Amino acid sequence: MPQEVFSICFMCTIRCPIRVEVENDEVKWIEGNPHVPGIEGALCAKGSAGIALLNDTERPQYPMIRVGARGAGEWRRATWEEALDYTAGKLKDIISRFGPQSVVLGERTNLNTHISKTFMRAIGSPNYFSHDALCKGSVNTAFRTLTGYTDAQVGVDYANCKHIVLYGRNIFESLEIKAINNLLTAMDKGAKLTYIDPRVTITASKADRYWMIRPGTDLALNYALMHVILKEGLHDKVYVRRWVKGLKDLE
Question: Boundaries of each 4Fe-4S Mo/W bis-MGD-type domain copy (predicted)?
Fold first, then answer.
């Protein structure tokens, strides 16, 4: 008899709530948690692939050390003690020859990220980074600049918007199921969608207005939008007077 287990997906940093069916200690099915508003049992392709990751026959089950030429695919099994000693020896050699700042650690953000950062500080290297540098980091920087908070702290109320502008945000091929469902709800209620991206994506096909800009012209488009907004006085002047500094210099 399958057992129902509620958990959180760790296939990305969104951490969607999931419902898992387990039978004889094996995961048989994964879906979005149907009890969570906005999720409605849905799950993205990456989350649904959690079973494949768990049962992947090529997934390493123990430490291995390369014994052949790079790329030859020749490895031997090692114990954890041997693997840790081997890695520590290599790190010590690199640090003694080039200094601790020659060591870089990059990883996907996870529950052990604080341990990785502590380890890097312990050996004297500031060179830690995660995928956030190429992903969520830019979004959070923009939100902090505009609001003082991250986007996770603020949230976007797609469901009650009247016009949504997505700038390179290919949301219909992304991972945030709740955001997609809320956007679809808004569009069902008559909201308009404007999408800006050099690529023709699924989101572009669903947009009411699609701007296919040339690659590398994002900044020019931004300046053009700013020029029209300021010239025609389309901005919220009360808000600007209270919260914005340097607008005169920009004009």
Answer: 2-58
107-to-90, 113, 130 alpha-carbon distances in Å? 19, 8, 5
- What is the CATH number that goes with domain 64-132? 3.40.50.740
User: For the residues of 85-131, what is the DSSP string, one character each?
Assistant: HHHHHHHHHHHHHH-GGG--EEE---TTHHHHHHHHHHHT---EEEG
DSSP letters, 34-62, are TTSTTTTT---HHHHTHHHHHT-TTS--S
> Does this model's pTM top 0.85?
no
What tokens were used for 120? Answer: 């890097």
- Give the CB-side neighbour count of residue 173, counting CA atoms within 13 A: 11
Question: Do residues 221 and 213 lie in contact, with contact meaning Cβ atoms separated by under 8 Å?
Answer: yes
Domain boundaries, the chain: 3-54, 64-132, 155-250
Length of the chain in terms of residues written: 251
CB 181 within 8 A of CB 39: yes
Which regions of the chain are under pLDDT 70? Answer: none
Q: How far apart are CA 143 and CA 155, in angstroms?
A: 10
- CATH code, residues 155-250: 3.40.228.10
Cα-based angle 14, 51, 38 (whole degrees, multiple of 5): 35
Sign of CA dihedral 140, 142, 148, 152: negative
CATH architecture of the domain 3-54 equals Single Sheet (2.20)
